[in-house]
């Protein structure tokens, strides 16, 4: 029996590292904890959309592994990006044909960044796929996506852990970050220097919102994985699942979220 508590889960962005979110969701579900609302940025928006659609975490992992995501990308002839994200819209439509927030089984909010106005924007109703794509639109790599006269890029630029849409609505909020960095790293080249610097900035964005979470799950060392390292998908999934099981063991109070209300038991 599921709890009647309103449980929100906020999922961070982080490229392919977001696959670990699926492992976290699997672990929570096995413990009897089922989100009643999800918010997500970038990879967290994609994982959240698929889960809210009704796919089991393992099903989403299988889809990711079997789908050649990169074949859907096309070069962009533009100063705003080197790739067109709009070309993968057809891929999303295979798995979310209704293209409507209102048709999801669990309410979802996705965060994006209005690059012209310098503001975070949130989508939770109406058209689904383009907002999810906008939330994942890495600046400089993908052309911004225009929605309602707003030029949108990756939500992680301003909000990489969108707890705000859950605040005041949910009884408990679980934050999930997929970008944990080792305390020290051997910086041997420019690429590693830039990657570590970007992830540090992303994590500062996340940790500034950590206090808004009742529980915070972060699998260690995921920052070492590349943004597009899809070959590590199963490893990332397992890392999220393993850390969630460990977190539940070390924080048994979270299991209170799985218990039905007394009113339910007496009904």
Task: Note the main attributes of this structure.
single chain, 267 residues, alpha/beta, Cytosolic phospholipase A2 catalytic domain, 8-stranded mixed sheet, 3-stranded mixed sheet, 33% helix, globular
Q: Summarize the biggest pleated sheet.
A: 8 strands, mixed
Question: Which regions are unreliable across 5 or more consecutive residues at pLDDT < 50?
Answer: 73-77, 261-267
Q: Strand percentage, roughly?
A: 15-25%
Mean pLDDT: 88
> What structural class is derived from the secondary structure elements?
alpha/beta
Task: Count all strands and give the number.
Answer: 11
Name of the CATH superfamily? Cytosolic phospholipase A2 catalytic domain
Per the principal axes of the C-alpha atoms, what is the gross shape?
globular
- Number of DSSP helical runs: 8
Q: Helical residue percent?
A: 25-40%
> What are the secondary-structure elements, in order, as H or E?
EHEHHEEHEEHEEEEHEHH
Count of spatially separate domains: 1
Radius of gyration: 18 Å
Overall CATH class: Alpha Beta
- CA-CA gap between termini: 13 Å
Structure characterization notes:
The chain has a single domain (7-257), classed as Cytosolic phospholipase A2 catalytic domain. The strands form two sheets. Strands 1, 2, 5, 6, 8, 9, 10 and 11 form an eight-stranded mixed beta sheet that branches. Strands 3-4-7 form a three-stranded mixed beta sheet, with no helix packed on it. It has helices spanning 19-30, 43-53, 57-66, 89-95, 129-135, 190-207, 233-250, 262-266; strands at 7-11, 37-41, 74-78, 81-84, 108-114, 119-123, 140-142, 145-147, 150-154, 172-177, 215-218. The chain starts with 6 loop residues before the first strand and ends with a helix. The radius of gyration is 18 Å and the shape is globular. It has 267 residues and is of the alpha/beta class. Helix 1 packs antiparallel against helix 3 and helix 1 (19-30) packs parallel to helix 7.
